[in-house]
Write a structure and sequence with these properties.
The protein has helices at residues 89-95, 115-129, 131-134, 148-159, 180-183, 197-202, 210-215, 243-254, 276-293; strands at residues 22-25, 28-37, 45-52, 59-65, 99-103, 136-146, 167-171, 229-234, 260-264. By secondary structure, the protein is α/β, with parallel strands linked by helices.
């Protein structure tokens, strides 16, 4: 008999057993390391799920996308200003009634754009498939990312079919890669540099890959079906100019939307330079926006 080669294929992530639950904080269940996709020729991609205990029905979802210049980072790291929080931001969101999903995605050393966007689309599809097992309402999904993760959250929110994503939050995110050379101070950014983080993402220097750079830019994909957006960016960001968030807000307004744009006075990248209270306020704004998008508070999408 011929060998059954189909047995060599990886198992379907939609049918794999879910991880054994842990209880990292009162009122919170954590499923760590669930496999949501197995890219051909790549490592299995996993996600953590922070779930509210004793939910009485399907719960809304926040998908957190980590930063790290597309080149590094940990899926459960919301940034240095929040690592010492007890309970942490994800547990707080779960206590507020959200499921929090923290996925891995392929880094730029593993695969160039659009692999990262494809991975986030795959985790959204996996959540829809496993919604019954996990007690989720995927129609109320909010994407939230910081830095490069904010870029990927916005790019995913704007390239999914309308209605897939209920809202998107970005913290100090690049949104227009061809515009970085104009937005950065003169002499601090070289669009021809093949070793820049943007070049590693695109598979070549942005100046030499203009079509790919535009396709990897959230501003390119703004349309009538865009979800509500909350854009938070420090006025003193020395790594990603605040003009990048302004560009996305302007594109959304030009398409008839009303994004919430908040330029945080004195904030540098990673919220360096902010007081503890001001950094906590950025999280509070994010939670309030997610509640509005999920229908557990006021209307989303209003603001400057």
């Amino acid at each position: 008999m011929p060998f059954p080669f189909h047995l060599l294929a990886p198992p379907d992530p939609a049918a794999l057993p879910l991880p054994h639950p842990a209880r990292p904080a009162d009122g919170v269940t954590l499923l760590r390391g669930a496999v949501y996709a197995v890219p051909d020729g790549g490592r299995p991609l996993t996600t953590d799920l922070w779930l509210p205990e004793d939910a009485t029905g399907p719960v809304p979802v926040v998908v957190f996308v980590h930063g790290g210049a597309w080149h590094t980072g940990l899926r459960d790291d919301p940034g240095p200003r929040f690592r010492a929080w007890r309970p942490g931001p994800f547990a707080r969101l779960a206590r507020a009634g959200f499921a929090v999903v923290c996925p891995d995605y392929r880094l730029s050393g593993e695969a160039p754009h659009p692999a990262q966007r494809d991975d986030l689309a795959a985790v959204l599809a996996w959540l829809r498939t496993r919604a019954g097992d996990l007690g989720l309402d995927p129609s109320r999904t909010v994407l939230w990312g910081e830095s490069a993760g904010g870029h990927l959250a916005a790019l995913t929110a704007l390239t999914q079919p309308p209605g897939t994503v209920a809202g998107c939050v970005t913290w100090y995110a690049p949104t227009d890669l061809p515009g970085l050379a104009e937005d950065r101070p003169e002499g601090t950014y070289d669009a021809h540099d093949p070793a820049s983080f943007e070049a590693l993402l695109l598979g070549g220097a942005p100046a030499g890959r203009p079509d790919t750079a535009r396709d990897a830019s959230p501003v390119t994909h703004v349309g009538a079906g865009a979800p509500p957006f909350l854009l938070l960016h420090g006025t003193d960001d020395s790594l990603v100019p605040p003009r990048q968030s302004v560009r996305l807000a302007e594109a959304l307004r030009a398409a008839g939307h009303h994004p919430d744009l908040c330029l945080v006075d004195g904030g540098d990248h990673l919220w360096v330079g902010l007081s503890d209270a001001d950094a906590a306020d950025c999280f509070a704004r994010t939670l309030a926006f997610a509640r509005r998008c999920a229908g557990t508070g006021g209307a989303a999408g209003s603001g400057t």
